[in-house]
Structure to design on (163 residues):
């Protein structure tokens, strides 16, 4: 009797877990929409150039601080823009990470869009210029309902990929 009750309890538990895994149905987006995800980490250009110190400047420093060159650590913010058919979907200026603002700027953004054909454009500026983009990518893509299109920046190739 005890064994039969244990078996029944385990079967009941498994049935409840199985039922809750498929019901109630949860959709992250509406049926006629899709998702565009922008995700990458990028280290922008440094604020200034490295410069070689003169012998006079080196002599003024303590012996343990005498480096032949001086390079600023701080990096420019990364400006990112994502457009679809000339409508801005996402625009942001991302600060570099780290205590001294010398790390990578990170972005992870999910944007819900209507499921249809889109002319996607993504631009990124990492040099501190106010106008234009240092890196650009574009693609005409048919986005099916429920699909997730991912926009990434490839550090090795120095270009965007839209998949």
């Amino acid at each position: 009797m005890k064994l039969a009750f244990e078996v029944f309890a385990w079967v009941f538990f498994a049935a409840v877990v199985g039922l809750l895994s498929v019901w109630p149905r949860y959709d992250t987006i509406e049926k006629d929409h899709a998702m565009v995800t922008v995700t990458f980490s990028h280290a922008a250009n440094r604020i200034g150039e490295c410069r070689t110190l003169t012998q006079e400047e080196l002599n003024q420093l303590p012996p343990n601080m005498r480096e032949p060159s001086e390079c600023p650590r701080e990096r420019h913010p990364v400006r990112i823009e994502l457009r679809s058919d000339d409508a801005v979907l996402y625009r942001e200026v991302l600060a570099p990470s780290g205590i001294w603002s010398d790390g990578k700027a990170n972005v992870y953004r999910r944007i819900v869009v209507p499921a249809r054909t889109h002319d996607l454009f993504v631009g990124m500026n990492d040099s501190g210029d106010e106008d234009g983009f240092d890196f650009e990518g574009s693609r005409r893509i048919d986005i099916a309902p429920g699909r997730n299109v991912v926009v990434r920046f490839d550090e090795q190739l120095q270009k965007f990929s839209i998949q």
Summary: Residues 2-22 form the longest helix (21 residues). The beta strands are 33-42, 51-52, 69-70, 78-84, 87-94, 105-114, 117-125, 135-142, 148-154, 159-162. The mean pLDDT is 91.
